[in-house]
Design brief:
By secondary structure, this protein is of the alpha/beta class. The chain has 17 helices and 8 strands. A hairpin with a 2-residue loop joins strand 3 (53-58) and strand 4.
Length: 523
């Protein structure tokens, strides 16, 4: 019986250690599982969760997503049905249209709608963009929902990785998706809901270990295989490339025919979004040399323009009008700088890219006079309202904590001078707030690929300093843990670990003014 209790004590200690590691890693950007907007959908594979709100960090930005009751990143009242005299524009696309890397004020979809309305046009824009969708998923959504949304103009924004995924029946994570035939009408099949992710699959610890293995492999010179999405860029593509193209063309044909069958007879345009390699020579060279990109492939063996050219050719064969933004975006890059997030941070538009794309799209559609109602007056893209009015939230939090803790300190130690007590509490709070706010600002300046290692290194340094300050007390802590373990007191292990951890940190905080603010920040 005692042997079993000792074994349980070891197991409980191990579980506590792993739990602490998992919790700690989830606070380090890059290791925690990212929040998701999506849930299973029997028609498209997945769709955004109605009413869901999340915040993500992309590069140095915090991006907020609010999904309305109809599953759209759009205004609350936007959904099926519309005003009788409104001209509805339906935008189909993936994360570029969703606005994966920008807040709505910077998203070209919302910028265009605001601009059109400022010109006195009765234009109602619906954003159906969904992270990770390929062309076939976008068309599948349209076939199911277009009649209810009553569009007058349909804009499809495919991206280069659509071509590969249009030829697959499921994604790499096992989630099933629509698959259009090589030709003819699409026959809908009900997709099977994937199994839920297990604990290990969503674990930050497993993510950390995988990252370590990849890092060690890179140090050893191991070359990762080419991402299958990138094969569409090769001048000598794989044998199944022809099937990918046929299925992509079939999806476009079904979209064209569905538009023609609607009562509104909406005009359809295909506007392929180019990759940054097709726009920016510096980004092209980085991607060609990047070990997770083309890994040094000869420049004459690939072209970043191939996907855009393919979509333009497929649309032309189907008599679908097209829009090609490459020249305008390349010119805007020369004049204004980067339009996409740089190098391996992200491949999507940044705020400047969304603005340039919105400006070009607005003017290009105006050239096609049949596309939109005429403007009644001069308009402009709305700029984000200034939020400088009022004090930042942290000032109110600081004042409340200072009042509460200062009062508590004075009540606890009534013999201490009141002014010095209050100022001491305020000074310590100021240091803690500086660590939190300054550290948060600093992390936004550090390239995201280095953040996990820099944060982890900082934690190791702090813990090393704590161990140094504890000195011989560590032997006492180890002896206590060993004693309780060997006696089989497994049910007391969580309490012992918590008490020893807190006690050790407080001892160090009391003995070192340098490290105390960091420890109090943890609390």
């Amino acid at each position: 019986m005692r042997a079993l209790n000792v074994l349980l004590a070891f197991v409980v200690s191990l579980v506590i250690g792993l739990a602490v590691l998992e919790l700690g890693l989830r606070f380090i950007p890059g290791f925690a599982p990212p929040p998701t907007l999506n849930t299973f959908d029997k028609d498209t594979g997945w769709a955004k969760v109605p009413g869901k709100s999340i915040t993500r960090r992309v590069g140095t930005e915090r991006i907020h997503f609010d999904i309305n009751e109809h599953g759209l990143r759009d205004d609350e009242d936007v959904g099926p049905g519309k005003d009788a005299d409104a001209f509805r524009v339906l935008m189909l696309g993936d994360s570029f249209v969703l606005g994966y890397t920008v807040n709505r004020t910077d998203l070209f979809v919302d910028q265009l709608e605001g601009w059109w309305k400022s010109e006195g046009r009765r234009v109602d824009v619906v954003n159906t963009g969904t992270e990770g969708w390929s062309t076939d998923q976008e068309v599948s959504w349209f076939l199911e929902n277009a009649r209810a949304y009553e569009p007058n103009l349909v804009l499809l924004f495919p991206y280069e990785n659509d071509i590969y995924w249009n030829g697959q029946a499921s994604y790499a994570n096992g989630i099933a998706k629509p698959l259009f035939p090589l030709e003819g009408l699409y026959e809908k099949r009900e997709l099977q809901e994937p199994r839920k992710k297990g604990v290990l699959e969503s674990s930050a610890t497993v993510s950390f270990l995988k990252r370590m293995v990849g890092w060690l492999g890179a140090l050893a010179g191991k070359v990762p295989p080419m991402n299958p999405e990138f094969r569409v860029l090769l001048n000598d593509p794989p044998s199944d490339y022809a099937d990918w193209c046929k299925r992509t063309g079939c999806a476009l044909a079904n979209l064209r025919d569905a538009c023609a069958a609607l009562p509104q007879k909406p005009k359809l345009y295909v506007c392929p979004i180019p990759s940054k390699s097709a726009i920016d020579p510096q980004e092209r060279e980085f991607f060609r040399k990047w070990n997770l990109g083309l890994n040094g492939l000869d420049d004459n063996k690939w072209s970043p323009d191939r996907p855009v050219e393919l979509f333009l050719q497929l649309a032309a064969k189907l008599a679908i009008p097209t829009l090609d933004p490459r020249a305008a975006l390349a010119d805007a890059t020369k004049r204004n700088g980067k339009l996409y997030y740089e190098e391996d941070v992200e491949w999507h538009f940044n705020a400047a890219g969304n603005l340039a794309f919105a400006q070009w799209l607005h003017d290009e559609l105006d050239r096609r006079e049949e596309a939109l109602p005429a403007a009644r007056n001069q308009g402009q893209i709305a700029t984000q309202a200034s939020s400088s009015a009022g004090l930042p939230t942290f000032v109110y939090v600081f004042a409340a904590l200072w009042t509460l803790l200062g009062t508590a300190f004075c009540v606890t130690y009534p013999k201490e001078p009141k002014l010095r007590s209050v100022l001491s509490v305020g000074g310590m709070l100021a240091v803690v707030f500086t660590i939190v706010l300054g550290g948060g600002h600093l992390t936004r300046l550090i390239p995201h690929q280095y953040m996990p290692w820099i944060t982890g290194g900082f934690v190791v340094i702090v813990l090393g300093f704590v161990a140094y300050k504890l000195g011989r007390r560590l032997a006492t802590v180890a002896e206590l843990l060993r004693s309780f373990t060997l006696r089989g007191h497994w049910y007391l292990m969580p309490l012992i670990v918590v008490l020893l951890t807190i006690g050790s940190l407080l001892v160090v905080a009391a003995s070192s003014p340098l490290i105390a603010p960091f420890i109090y920040t943890l609390f």
